[in-house]
Amino acid sequence: MQNTFTPIANDTFIAMFTHDLKTPINSGIFALEMLLKNSSNNLNDYQKELLNDLLNSSKYMKRLTENALCKFKAESGKLTLNKEKCSIKTLVKRCIEETKYILKDKKQTLNFNCVQNDITGKVDIVEFTRIINNLISNASKYSPKNSEINITLKKLSNRIYFEIEDFGCGIDIKELDKAFEKYVRLANNQKSAGTGLGLYITKLIVDAHGGNIKINSKLKQGTKISFDIPA
Ligand SMILES: Nc1ncnc2c1ncn2[C@@H]1O[C@H](COP(=O)(O)OP(=O)(O)OP(=O)(O)O)[C@@H](O)[C@H]1O
Ligand SMILES: [Mg+2]
Q1: What pLDDT does residue 227 have?
Q2: What's the total number of domains in the chain?
Q3: Whether residue 143 has its Cβ less than 6 Å from ligand 1
Q4: Cα dist from 32 to 24, 48, 120, 129, whole Å
Q5: Is the CB of 194 under 6 A from ligand 1?
Q6: Are 88 and 22 in a shared domain?
Q7: Does 177 lie in the same domain as 220?
Q8: Radius of gyration of the chain (CA)
Q9: How far is the CA of 128 from the centre of ligand 1 (A)?
């Protein structure tokens, strides 16, 4: 008997494709990290630099595929949050630590302001991490070398407030309300790579946590994105 294949919708195909890409990308990241950690003494500076470049682009690829997958899950109603109580302050610090490699190339400085000793809340740790990574990635990508990025975290009346500010190219006020649409890349962004999914995903996840997100920006001055979610 001949095998027949039922045609699948484009979106389903992309969801399966991105899902399948995750495993080899993660293996590559793991192998490169092991190599850099365990064989560092046997590598010269040029070899280390090449491996680090490869590691950074693999991490970038990982973020893009995970964003695409998150989009398809959310749009097919399969984005279910696994909320757990945790220290949001520690989580944000960990995200900052993990995204340091993004800032290193452009020699940018990230300042973290949180005066409260600890901030706890109930979030989906994986999805919350995705929000912070996307916002840090944008703040860095759309800002010049040596610039500063400020992150503020606080808890007030049982809500968690997060804000990220950069001093980059900013967004034209006429385009601001388009920023959270999917596949949108604005006029300020003709050169850099990306899918235009980062802010769309970010808003989906903030909404799913019962939160609000807003953006303020001035062309050539910078951008401030803030969100709050129930603790
Ligand atoms: N901090 C920012 N400063 C200036 N422009 C921004 C900033 N963040 C986002 N934008 C603009 O909004 C658009 C959408 O951002 P988004 O993060 O969704 O996509 P991307 O960065 O282009 O690609 P991706 O995040 O999928 O790699 C960007 O293309 C850019 O034009
Ligand atoms: Mg982005």
Answers
A1: 98
A2: 2
A3: no
A4: 12, 10, 34, 22
A5: yes
A6: no
A7: yes
A8: 19
A9: 18
Which residue reads 């190339």 in tokens? Answer: 105
Per-residue pLDDT at 76 exceeds 70 = yes
The answer as to whether 4 is a domain residue is: no
CB 103 within 8 A of CB 109: yes
- Assigned domain for 89 exists: yes
- Tell me, using a 6 A CB cutoff, whether residue 188 lines ligand 1: yes
Q: Which DSSP state fits 84?
A: E
The answer to the question of residue 66 being in a domain is yes
- Could you give the 3-state DSSP secondary structure of residue 75? helix
Its sign, for the CA torsion 72, 74, 80, 82, is: positive
Task: Return the structure tokens found at 35.
Answer: 């190599």
Partner residues linked to 23 by β-bridges: none
pLDDT level of residue 193 (50, 70, 90 thresholds):
confident
pLDDT at 230: 97
Amino acid 190: pLDDT: 67
- 157 lies in a domain? yes
CB 81 within 8 A of CB 65: no
**Which structural domain range is residue 56 located in?**
10-75
Please give the model's pTM, rounded to 2 decimal places: 0.86
Mean pLDDT of the chain: 90
Q: Which sign, positive or negative, has the C-alpha torsion 195, 106, 27, 125?
A: negative
Please state, in angstroms and rounded to a whole number, the distance separating the CA atoms of residues 87 and 120: 4
